[in-house]
Structure formats: structure tokens, C-alpha cells
Amino acid sequence: MYQVINPESLGAPRGWNHGMLAPTGGRVLFIAGQVGSDETGRVISDDFVEQFGRALENVLTVVRQAGGDADSVGRLFILVTSVDAYLASLKPLGVAYRAIMGRHYPAMCLAGVSRLVDPRAQVEIEALAVIAPEPGS
């Protein structure tokens, strides 16, 4: 759905893309930051990778409700309370990511923060998606 924009002068990205150009007529969906919580709003685990996976699943729950899927996501903004925990978990995070998003790699940003609103949350993921135009519109 997106046209991937990766200028050679910026180097080849790995596991993300520099830019994602949405199709004309797509509907923009802004997804609020999602943590690794269940339907009661409670964080499901103290495990970093499990929280990441659930937060990403929660993002896709919003996208699916709007009529999209993983390929609809054009941008992920990931907040973590420990960049060290993120770096130490790259392989299992990659497995969790691909199980949810497949081989779709949107534009991404990761930032370390001192804490999130929920004191148990270690990961929060905000997203931007474009839902394909409805047929006939």
C-alpha cells in the first residue's frame, strides 16, 4: 500500500524504512500510545519482550477496528524505559515483531524515557496508519 522511500544518501535501513508514502485518498488513523496491557488495562507481565508484543498487538487491535491490518501502519514511535533492555532483547523482539507485523517495516523511532504513566509499563508504542480508501470513494 505504501511507497517505501529510502534515499541512498541516508544509508540502507535495517528493520525499518526512512519514509513511507501513503496512497492518495487513504484515511489517516492516529493510534494513541499502547502499553502491554490486557482488556482490564493491567500490564500483562514484567517481561520486556512480552510487554513489547502485547503493546504492538494492542496497536493492531485499533488498526483492525478501523478496517486496516499490519500493512496499514506507516509509522511506529516506541518508548522504552530501558534502552539497555531493548538492546539486550533484539533477537526475541525481532521474533515477536515478525509474528505480529510479518515483514512489514514502517518508519520507526525508538526513544528511552525515564518512566511511563503506568509504573509497570516498560514499553509504549504509538502509531500512525493509513487505511485504504473504501471502494467507490
TrEMBL record:
Matching InterPro entries: RutC-like_sf, YjgF/YER057c/UK114
Lineage of the organism: Bacteria, Candidatus Eiseniibacteriota
Family matches, as CDD domains: YjgF_YER057c_UK114_family (cd00448)
Signal peptide: none
Protein name: RidA family protein
Organism expressing this protein natively: Eiseniibacteriota bacterium
Domain of life: Bacteria
PANTHER family linked: BLR7761 PROTEIN, YJGH FAMILY PROTEIN
One Pfam family linked to the record: Ribonuc_L-PSP
